[in-house]
Design goal:
Elements: E1 2-3, E2 8-9, H1 27-49, H2 55-66, H3 68-74, H4 83-97, H5 103-130, E3 135-138, E4 141-144, H6 152-184, E5 186-193, E6 196-204, E7 219-222, H7 224-227, H8 233-237, H9 241-247, H10 253-256, E8 259-266, E9 269-278, E10 281-286, E11 289-294, E12 297-300, E13 313-315, H11 319-322, E14 324-325
Parallel strand pairs: 6-13, 7-12
Antiparallel strand pairs: 1-2, 1-4, 3-4, 5-6, 5-10, 7-13, 8-9, 9-12, 10-11, 11-14
Helix pairs in contact: 1-2, 1-5, 1-6, 2-4, 4-5
């Protein structure tokens, strides 16, 4: 049975005897099924919202959520079965399962819990419809008619859903952690060159210690997103290292005067050359004010620095210390 008013998904399986037509419910099996499904839903909720919790709280939350099954069966007239009771019950589940940090976080967790429940409940209804399984609506809940040990579609969701929810939750938590770490070191950047300006997002790369061995200037790195604000795609292709080495004289005068080839080491390979341009100024906007670096070297990266385009420049970490405040 999927209860859409409370945001709860649980199984209420029935089996009619051949003669008397009595309903037989194996409560222990149905309760176990719903306990597992509740655990899966709460696990997915935690993965989406990155809510703080523990194994003990998650198990307790799943247990509390599953108690709606005997309540519905033995106390069908209870206030918890009504609309107000269902809303209250779903909030209580979230309060038990996750640590309370703020009203906003609690609300997000509660709404996410509903969203996941509706998604799973809707998917179950779709599978039932596809398999031509008998279903009916009773008291605002979807009742499926199957063996008394639980709806086989629900068991299938648990068997498949638990591994998927574990993988999804682990992946989502890792993604959120990485994304948060990136955002902490990402700034708005403005590059000025030849009287023009270009804007992008820059990441402070703590591992970047590259400097020009001749001029001792810091070397930054920007991808095509920024360079296409200065050059056409054809001009940008001419800034590939092979073309610069063999046909530097073919480049426009303003580019020729700015180009510098800087040796660098990547992944244990030495003897590589990076095409850089001597730009007029790089300005990084921070909470405490703008940081400026005049006449730095900016490396040309033809591909995107990151697949999600969260940032388009690698900022030399020394700028954050040596940059002149504007």
């Amino acid at each position: 049975m999927t209860d859409f008013l409370s945001g709860r998904a649980y199984t209420f399986s029935t089996a009619d005897k051949e003669e008397g037509g009595e309903r037989i419910i194996y409560l222990d099996a149905v309760w176990l099924l719903n306990l597992l499904m509740d655990g899966m839903i709460l696990s997915l909720t935690q993965g989406i919202t990155r809510a703080k919790s523990s194994k003990t709280r998650m198990i307790a939350g799943a247990f509390v959520a599953s108690t709606i099954v005997p309540i519905t069966i033995y106390m069908p007239d209870s206030w918890l079965v009504g609309s107000f009771g269902k809303v209250f019950f779903s909030m209580f589940i979230i309060w038990v399962a996750f640590s309370y940090t703020s009203l906003r976080a609690f609300f997000v967790q509660w709404i996410s819990f509903y969203f996941i429940t509706f998604a799973i409940g809707g998917s179950m209804m779709g599978v039932h419809y596809f398999l031509a399984t008998e279903i009916s609506l009773q008291g605002g809940s979807i009742v499926t008619f199957s063996g008394g040990y639980g709806d086989p579609v629900s068991w299938l969701f648990v068997v498949i859903g638990f591994p998927c929810s574990f993988v999804f939750t682990k992946w989502r938590l890792n993604q959120v952690s990485v994304h948060k770490m990136k955002l902490e070191d990402i700034y708005d950047v403005t590059v000025e060159w030849n009287g023009r300006s270009a804007h992008c997002k820059g990441l402070v790369d703590s591992g970047n210690q590259l400097v020009d061995p001749v001029s001792r200037k810091m070397v930054f790195l920007a991808d095509s997103f920024l360079w296409e604000q200065f050059f056409s795609k054809e001009q940008l292709q001419q800034l590939e290292v092979d073309h610069v080495v063999t046909a530097l004289a073919d480049l426009p005068d303003d580019i020729q005067s700015s180009v510098r080839l800087v040796p660098y080491q990547a992944a244990g390979v030495t003897g590589q050359l990076l095409v850089t341009l001597l730009v007029d100024k790089i300005t990084v906007k921070t909470e405490s004010g703008n940081l400026e670096m005049k006449a730095p070297l900016l490396g040309v990266q033809q591909q995107d620095l990151t697949h999600d385009r969260l940032y388009q420049m690698l900022i030399h970490p020394h700028l954050m210390v040596k940059g002149k405040s504007a």
